[in-house]
Specification:
Blueprint lengths: L2 E4 L21 E4 L1 E5 L4 E11 L3 E11 L4 E12 L4 E10 L4 E10 L5 E10 L2 E10 L13 E11 L4 E11 L2 E12 L8 E2 L3 E5 L3 E11 L5 E9 L4 E12 L2 E12 L7 E13 L4 E10 L4 H4 L7 E11 L4 E11 L1 H4 L2
């Protein structure tokens, strides 16, 4: 038989204290069985226990609530299901402050975007959760049961701030195939609920016979102006060096502009540790009187490195500006262009 108790209306276990915002906490219990000790101010719920509040639902095998201490201990198979889609699994938690604050040991977290986090301890106070000794990965693997992901971030402290919609990492080690590769004292990234916010994007790793180990680490930058954004990416090319890339995108009412700048120091056909630079631009838009304009430009100071490192496989560059106009009975087009042959220097 199910027991349903609305804590605020239960004469003995009603939570009469107020939270900091002076609002009471509406919490609902359901369980298979219920024991109440009025003398000790204790309530013990067993079997399919569900604690439901405005922001999350907690499921457990057993919950013991001490009204005098405003403290509940949940044990067994525990799931904490947040309204934002985050699911936390553990075996024992302590709830205080009208069931809003949580302390848990040895837990596994799965976020809305399927990224995962292991931790030895969780301390949740209001809208801020702090995970200690965290291991985070977005990889699609059985991380919970010990399968090693392609890459992961190990951090001494991971803070998820739901008000700021950010995740902060302290003392971070980037592991590739379980091998520690980079150390960062501090990292931050938007949480999975954010559509646009500055922060690190998912890095990638690869291996090639030419370069050896390769990594790509992108950082996304945006502002409140949704008409433009940019991405800065470090491309580590193993034993052959590195290339930095800046990609900027801008939308207009009647068109768009996108640019890419490449700068780095890599081995080329000319010399080792060659300093290189390249860039490209694409523009598309509408002018007055139904004219349409399209432009594209490419430049490189070293003819082969863009192709060699798989940024652009073109053997020649076509730079052009094109305008055209279409009416009911005519078509007009003007084009200026210039070709650059990249094969000339590569055959020397």
């Amino acid at each position: 038989m199910k027991f349903i108790i609305l804590i605020l209306s239960l004469f003995l276990f009603s939570v009469s204290s107020y939270s900091q915002d002076n609002t009471k906490s509406n919490v609902e219990f359901t369980s298979d069985s219920l024991e109440v000790d009025e003398n000790k101010n204790l309530m013990i719920a067993k079997g399919n226990v569900i604690i439901k509040s405005e922001k999350e639902t907690i499921k457990a095998d057993k919950v013991k609530y001490d009204k005098s201490l405003d403290k509940a201990t949940a044990s067994g198979n525990i799931s904490i299901i947040n309204n934002d889609g985050t699911i936390i699994e553990t075996s024992e938690i302590i709830l205080t402050n009208e069931f809003k604050d949580i302390l848990a040991l040895t837990l596994f977290t799965k976020f809305k975007d399927n990224s995962k986090l292991k931790a030895s301890k969780l301390s949740k106070i209001s809208d801020k959760s702090v995970f200690f000794n965290g291991e985070y990965t977005p990889c699609d693997c059985d991380f919970k049961n010990g399968e090693k992901p392609v890459w992961q971030l190990n951090s001494s402290e991971v803070t998820h701030d739901k008000l700021e919609k950010m995740i902060y990492f302290k003392n971070v080690v980037l592991k590739i195939m379980d091998y520690p590769l980079f150390y960062f004292p501090y990292l931050s990234t938007p949480d999975p609920s954010v559509r646009r916010k500055s922060g690190f994007l998912m890095p990638s790793i690869g291996y090639s016979n030419r370069n050896g180990l390769e990594t790509t680490i992108p950082y996304y930058f945006t502002t409140e102006d949704e008409s433009w954004d940019s991405t800065f990416t470090n491309h580590f090319k193993g034993k052959n060096g590195y290339i930095n890339q800046l990609n900027v995108r801008k939308k207009y009412n009647s068109g768009y502009l996108e640019t890419n700048l490449f700068q780095g120091q890599v081995d080329t056909n000319n010399e080792n540790d060659d300093k290189v630079f390249a860039g490209n631009l694409n523009f598309d838009g509408k002018l007055e009187s139904n004219w349409h304009i399209n432009a594209s430009g490419k430049y490189t100071d070293q003819d082969t490195f863009m192709k060699r490192y798989n940024f652009d496989n073109s053997s020649n560059y076509k730079n052009y500006i094109k305008t055209n106009k279409i009416t009911n009975n005519s078509f007009s087009e003007i084009e200026w262009y210039k070709y650059t042959n990249l094969e000339v220097d590569s055959k020397r």
